[in-house]
Structure formats: structure tokens, C-alpha cells
Amino acid sequence: MALDKNGIAQRIAQDLRDGWYVNLGIGIPTLVANYIPEGIEVEFQSENGILGMGPFPFEGEEDADLINAGKQTITAMPGAVYFDSATSFAMIRGQHVQLTVLGAMEVADNGDIANWKIPGRMVKGMGGAMDLVASADNIIVAMMHTNKKGESKLLSKCSLPLTGVGCVKKVVTNLAVLEITSDGFKLIERAPGVSVEEIQNATAGRLVVEGEIPEMKLN
User: How far is 163 from 115, CA to CA, in rounded Å?
Assistant: First the structure.
């Protein structure tokens, strides 16, 4: 059974480590804040100017003035701080963030990422994505394995304008966990009930499969 967006976020949350500062991009990545493992503390940073971002608020408890970079209402943890964009991007460019979680339209098997523009469609700009991928050493992409037409989004080469080159370390999709290696996407885990063959059929880029591939264990 393929994961939904919350399942992807839950799996990525397992990679969080105590004391990390973590930037969450727009889309699926924002859900990661809902699944912090017990016993660890992490500080979530949103590029629009908050450190100490909490999970999404319950219905009826939203504060319209408290939002993330995707303009979704959020909560703030005790001790959270607010600041301007210059300070926010100084944190990012100064490499003070240990993990960046981004969404993507496409990822190539060499770690290239395209996540900001589809030619012919109007966009407001690339946002902070290019700063994030240029500055971060640890980037996990959260995405669906295929598009709405069933076409793979894990490719040998991105067809859309690139956000960053060779920067992605890991991809977590609704079907699998894959690491970027010199030989392509290395299959690390598969979603519960999803076969290796299904993942192979849904992956257009180079896919490395070695030995028995375990199922993801979601808490």
C-alpha cells in the first residue's frame, strides 16, 4: 500500500536528530513537524522568519498572523523567535541548519532537483529554494513517486528548470526511500505492501537494488 502525504512526512521524521535545526519547505515537508519522535527536540525554521515552529493548529485555534512560508497557519513552540528575512537567510546561507526537507517536481539520479517552475505557468518567483539547495549539506526530498498521469518523477535527467545540481542526499516518496549514489537511486526501503517491481516500474532513472529490501517501519 503506497503512503499518503502524512506517511511520507512520518517516515522523514525518523531521520530527525536531537538538537538539530531543520528547515521545512512548502507542501509535504511542512507535515514533518507533526511527527517529531519522542525523546528528541528539534527546532524547525521557516524562511519567512520563525525559529521554533510547531505542528499545525487544531481547527478553531488558528492565528491568521502566524504562518509558514507556504502561508499555512502554524503554531509556535515555547521560546520561539521571530525575525526578518535577512536574518532567516543568514541562518540558511551560514549553514546553521542541519537538515532541509523540500518538495520537488522532479529529481534526477545524480541528485539534481527541479522544484520551482514549470515553463509556461506563471510563478511568483523561486522563493528561498535556490538558497536552501546551495547552502544545505543534508537535503531530503519529500515527493510523490509519479505525477498525476502516472509518469515517473525520479528521472535520469530533469526536464524542468533546475533549482540545484547534485545536492539531494535522499528521497522519500509514497513508494520508497532512496539514497542518491554515484550509481543512481539506491533503494533503501519500500512502503508497506509495495513490491520492488512496482518501484522499478515507477522509476525512470537508474535504480540500484541490492539484496532484500525491508519495508518501512512507521510508528
Answer: 6
- Give the residues across from 212 on adjacent strands: none
Q: Specify the pLDDT at position 159.
A: 95
Q: Which residues of the chain have pLDDT under 70?
A: 119-127
Overall fold of domain 5-31+97-208: Glutaconate Coenzyme A-transferase (3.40.1080)
> Annotated catalytic sites, by residue?
47
Cell for 37?
519522535
Name the residue ranges covered by the structural domains of the chain: 5-31+97-208
- Phi–psi pair at 47, nearest 5 degrees: -65, -15
Residue 63 vs residues 68, 72, 76, 82, 94: alpha-carbon distances, Å? 11, 10, 10, 15, 31
Distance CA 50, CA 166 (A): 28
| Chain segment 28-67, per-residue pLDDT in tens | 998 999 999 999 999 999 988 999 999 889 999 999 999 9
Distance CA 52, CA 23 (A): 10
